Amino acid sequence: MTGSDRLVEVLPKAHLHLHFTGSMRVDTVRDLAAKHGIRLPDALLGDWPPRLAKATDERGWFRFQRLYDAARACVRGEEDMRRIVREAALDDAAEGSRWLEIQVDPTSYAPFVGGITPALEIVLDEARAVSASGEIGVGVVVAASRMRHPLEARTLARLAARHAGSGPGEVVGFGLSNDERRGLVADFAPAFGIARRAGLALVPHGGELLGAQSVMETLEHLGPDRIGHGVRSVEDPQVLDAVAAAGVALEVCPGSNVALGVYADPEDVPLRRIMEAGVRVALGADDPLLFGSRLSSQYTAARSLGCSDAELAELARGSILASRAPDGVRRAALEDIDAWLTPSSGKPAGPPR
Ligand SMILES: [Zn+2]
Q1: What are the Adenosine deaminase domain coordinates in residue numbering (predicted)?
Q2: In the chain, is it the N or the C terminus that has fewer CB atoms within a 10 Å radius of its CB?
């Protein structure tokens, strides 16, 4: 069999970088907009996916945020929130994901459901319900925003800590998202301290819009288990080595990087350099609603970068090992990744001779 015969859609994997709003199907956001009488921006009504401006400059990021905010404004209550979790899980499962850690900032939905606690509990409850099917387990990452005051991050960390656990429908991690150029990483250290004491995985964004120095600051001040993106650590070999030495995994999202202009071309995404440095990688889709590609497309992108099937399997193992998936899920997924690599798997068996 040649490498390309193995289907990435059936390679077992975990998905560790997916935002709640950004996970939406485009049809879903259009449905919700119609339901609530909201006019979506043309970019979400016309040809999909939308063409995004280069987000590494402030104007491009602002335009991306405006689209994101428009999508988020269509989510107005429990029913909508449950639909998003359910569809994200089903879409993930259809692409071979055994475990999803969906990232949500409950602040955005709190006004519609009576506060951040009910907002988080709705997400957790639906995560539990969809996990009961047995196809996929869904854990939740509570993400604070860099655009808000660090005290709000502490409030969210305490909320996350109260729901901390290691199974489906529990909070498994604490993140920090949004424009890296806002706020000082060090100011969020107390919030990450609360999350650390609760045993949560610490998964802040860094090294996407800003370079290697932002990765170093994230390592020093937040003590992360994983970093969202972190791709720009390759700009300083010492930082890349520090990531490897700290055993920190990077959630690399090739489709997102290209859509936002962090890299001009798919072949510029430094995935192989990160892997060669001995850094564990978990591929993620980030915001499929705006970037137009879901989880398995990230593995296809890795294949286009020259990854062999053995390396794709290593990426899938990385995603499982960097996750907070329960032991049973991990064991089964790792075994099935090995099976995917064996010569007879990955496509239907041929007729008997
Ligand atoms: Zn992200």
Answers
A1: 12-340
A2: C
